[in-house]
Amino acid sequence: MNIWTALTAPQRLALLLAAASLLAMARGVARLVLSAARRRSVLQRTGDEHRKRVATAMAGYEPSASETGLGWEGFRRLTVSGKEWETASQDVCSFYLEPVDGKTLPDFLPGQFLTFRMGFLDSAGQERHVVRCYSLSWGGARKPYRISVRRINGAPDKSETPGVVSTHLHDRIQVGAVLNVKAPAGGFYLDPQKDGGPVVLISAGIGITPLFSMADSLIESGSTREIWFFVGMRSAHSFPMREQILAWAKDRSGFNLVIFHSQPSADERLGVDFDVRGHVTAEAVRERLGQREADFYVCGPGTMMNSMVGGLEALGIASDRIHFEAFGPASVRRAPKDVDDRIANPYSVRFARSGVSVPWDSTYDNLLSFAEAQGVPIDGGCRSGNCGTCATAVDEGTVEYVARAAAKTESGTCLTCVAVPSSALVLDA
């Protein structure tokens, strides 16, 4: 007698019901497992597609340190932990910065800058609040942060006006002072981990600071890339970080240094203290480098930038291999496309929040300096289209960029430091 026949009818019914229930549960579990697997598959495909879309959208975009998670939001309080002169003429001073809160400073990308907001009394006793950007002057793994600032004394012919902020930093900011600082940012930087051909660094004056950071990062990371450093200075007395750069040239294989002095001192010897009398030129760079493909990084005053970038392009160097950042209000001008004609047009400019409406004055190079002349406050940092501090919403009208801008802006805004009106204009300022 088997077990089934021994069971009573109610017992058989109960057993059948239990079996049916177990079968339903098994089928449900199977469906759940299959559904989960399908969801994972869909999510995997969706994630892959999303990543592809993101990669496509970000192609060619150069993030700032804060955008890559290396920085912080807004302004952070950093204290000046050290201060030292970098030149014999004492026109360049380095400031070492550490966080007041004692937390770790993030790394940065070599070539990036810090943005400072400072308040002080000007020569007339009026309180001023200004924003300025200064390049970090050593590699991204170095701590504390360091900026190297040139005092701008101005020129007798008024081609250069005295630097209010640089004077304030040199004369009034001492060890222990606390400054308000934004995270490292900027699209002008070098990836020290990238392999490839030679890295060519071309600087003039204080434009050497971000390029020093690039060279320092390459050396500290153990990169085997050949480095060519073309340095343009008035003389050895105005050459910041000179001893360190000379040490690299002496000790590191593949480090090639070419020094140009436009106004060498009487005690300087050609071929010993400097290599070329005069300014750095694209032709001189090509003469020494030859026809090899390289990545070019250029930084200096506007006049140098215009001649160097245009000169390199004229020699057949691909524009995507030429990376640049200008210092000061002058930047790299675009190839002329009747820009001057457009600047001369008498468009009206209205600053909506300030209630100021005036005709455009073509003697001004850009909307930022024009706004400042009208007493309209617009923050300005680099003043060369790199930092994005001066970005302002355009309520009505259009603008024309008269210089190549590295900073990216949102739709409906413009970088006032490198823009002029191309129609009647209303700005949210």
Describe the overall structure.
- The model is unreliable at 32-69 and 334-339 (pLDDT under 50).
- By secondary structure, this protein is of the alpha/beta class.
- The strands form 4 sheets. A 6-stranded antiparallel sheet has the order 4-3-6-1-2-5, covered by helices on one side. Strands 10-9-8-7-11-12 form a 6-stranded parallel sheet, sandwiched between helices.
- The longest helix has 50 residues, at 9-58.
- The radius of gyration is 30 Å and the shape is globular.
- It contains 9 helices and 19 strands.
Largest sheet: 6 strands, antiparallel
Sequence stretches where pLDDT stays below 50 over 5 or more residues: 32-69, 334-339
Give the overall silhouette: globular
The SSE string, one letter per element, is: HHEEEEEHEEHEHEEHEHEHEEHEEEEE
Count the strands? 19
What is the mean predicted local confidence, pLDDT? 81
User: Gap between N and C termini, in Å?
Assistant: 99 Å
| Distinct helical segment count | 9
Number of domains: 3
What is the CATH T-level topology of the largest domain? Rossmann fold
Helix content: 25-40%
**CATH H-tier superfamily of the largest domain:** Nucleotide-binding domain of ferredoxin-NADP reductase (FNR) module
Name of the CATH architecture of the largest domain: 3-Layer(aba) Sandwich
Spatial order of the strands forming the largest sheet:
4-3-6-1-2-5
Our estimate of the beta-strand percent is 25-35%
Q: Which structural class matches the secondary elements?
A: alpha/beta
Gyration radius (Cα, Å) is 30 Å
CATH class of the largest domain: Alpha Beta
